[in-house]
Amino acid sequence: MDQLLLNYFKNSLYGIAVYERVEKDRYRFVLYNTTGRKMDGVPDIDYEGKFIEDLFPNVHEFGIFEKLEEVFKTGIPQEHQLKTYKISDDHYLYRTNKIQKLSNGYMVCQYHDESKVFDLTDRLVQDYETFENIFNYSEYKVKGDFSIVHQLIQVLLKKQPSDELKKINTHIKNIEDKIDALSSSISRGMKKIKQEVFR
Predict the structure, then answer these.
(1) 70-88 confidence digits (pLDDT tens)
(2) How many domains does the structure of the chain reveal?
(3) What number of CA atoms fall less than 13 Å from residue 36's CA on the CB side?
(4) Same domain, 10 and 99
(5) Whether residue 148 is found in the same domain as residue 163
(6) For residue 185, what pLDDT is reported?
């Protein structure tokens, strides 16, 4: 490996792992820079000559081997978008990997910590669920109850018209219109969140 490139890999602020493909879905560490080891919580691990699954037993769940194989065969760089890797029940890694093949056949994965992005996405999902609950309650429960009252007043007005009932009827209709406006606003907010999170 070119010394200039090697120095860049070793000193990069991104996590970088360089692998040698031994056979299909079998990749051995050639380089695993300090930033990457710290980011992954294994700063002092002995990685040289080890296969990926030797250090990270759950790596097959991460889905990265499919991308490695594709890039190895085509030579076209690929991005393995935000994925979760489970270290243990209370320790997860969130990574986006950029994968490329060097002229000597080595495979390079460059990545950074996506925990903050994942946390933001998770909060947006929770916000979406909250908005969905508010929307359903206002649209089907509150509005439904007011619609029933509105219908009852309409019946009473036909039987016994009065100014008081007409005023109540007008107020009920205004409330229904405001509920419609609120539901529309919530629906637009849900749509924006959906476009950002579930695209």
Answers:
(1) 999 999 999 988 666 666 6
(2) 2
(3) 22
(4) yes
(5) yes
(6) 76
